Amino acid sequence: MLSRVLLYGLRCIIGGVVVGSLWLTGLILFTRIIPSSPQDTTSATDGIVIFTGGKTRLKEGLALFEQKKAEYLLVSGVNPVSTFPESVEKMSERSHITLGYDALDTVGNAEETAAWAYKHQIKTLRLITSNYHMPRSLFELHHLLPQVQILPHPVVGDNFLKPKWWFEGETLYLVVQEYNKFLFALIRRPFEDLQGFLLAREKSQ
Questions:
Q1: Does the reported pTM lie above 0.90?
Q2: What pLDDT score does 64 carry?
Q3: What structural domains does the chain harbor?
């Protein structure tokens, strides 16, 4: 009996070490796909979308839109109590700016963006969000807009510009948190696709 308990405990320890090693390896790989700067700041696109979450994102997106880098602009996930809409009302191209209030998370951002892109027949899109948030945002958007060319335009915080940013506790926490959300998205999406397929199949019968 004791030997079985010890064997079970040993298996649990080995399993934990393997899972932990895989998670850590994935985290290291994840940090390597976090962009450190926008690759293209000059090309024009049909639309620009800003996933809200910081003033820098809004400032960058509005500046590019005012430079005529896109015909349409979507600000997804606007806080209803924000004063940002008041400043947008004063812009000359207000009719081409959409303020989205429905999105509460990244999935909601992607869904809001997809509906807007279909409405305006967007074929090329510049995505503005924080650099650590870019991998998951692209994953969600590519799934809903497979035919749209998406140009990532990351906003990079000062901490990420440091040579050894992983020593910054707050920054490392953001990356680990985002990595876990990214893993969950990779797991969640196939199940949702399967569920949608089964529902569609059931309705067709």
A1: no
A2: 94
A3: 28-205 (3.40.50)
